[in-house]
Amino acid sequence: MSFYTYILASGRNGTLYVGMTDDLEVRVMQHRSRLQGGFTAKYDVHILVWYQTHDSRDAAFARERAITKWRRVWKLEMIEHVNPTWADLLPAFVAARDAPYVPPPLPPHLRPS
User: Considering the entire predicted model, what is its pTM?
Assistant: First the structure.
């Protein structure tokens, strides 16, 4: 089983939301449906702009907590490093479910400790 840390955006350089889940497709669709209300519904944050796969729930949660504490500029830099056009990554994720997305290496100052 895989676990994911992800970032949703309202648009390029827009409002960001960092989360973690064990089912990325379902979780993003929950955000998009706005049925649960909350931050992403209020600010129309629904575009999957970055994600990372982890082997354990603890690793995904730790990464989420770390990214949440980052400066906004670091988050933007990380997104643009792997997704310079701010494309919605969900269609590619769904299409490549059997071949997980492997982002290019991050610059040293953005790598997990």
Answer: 0.84
Which residue from 97, 1, 102 is spatially nearest to 55, judged by alpha carbons? 1
Token digits of residue 3: 């676990």
Q: Over the Cα atoms of the chain, what is R_g?
A: 13
Q: What is the DSSP letter of 92?
A: H
Instruction: Please identify, in words, the CATH class of the domain defined by 3-110.
Output: alpha beta
Domain borders along the chain are 3-110
Taking only the tens place, the pLDDT of each residue in 4-25 is 999 999 999 999 999 999 999 9
The pLDDT of 29-40, averaged and rounded, is 89
Give the pair of three-digit tokens for residue 19: 């989360």
Kind and range of the H or E element at 16? strand 16-21
Cα distance between residue 75 and residue 44, in whole Å: 18
Please check whether residue 40 is in contact with residue 86, taking contact to mean a CB–CB distance below 8 angstroms. no
d(CA 38, CA 1): 27
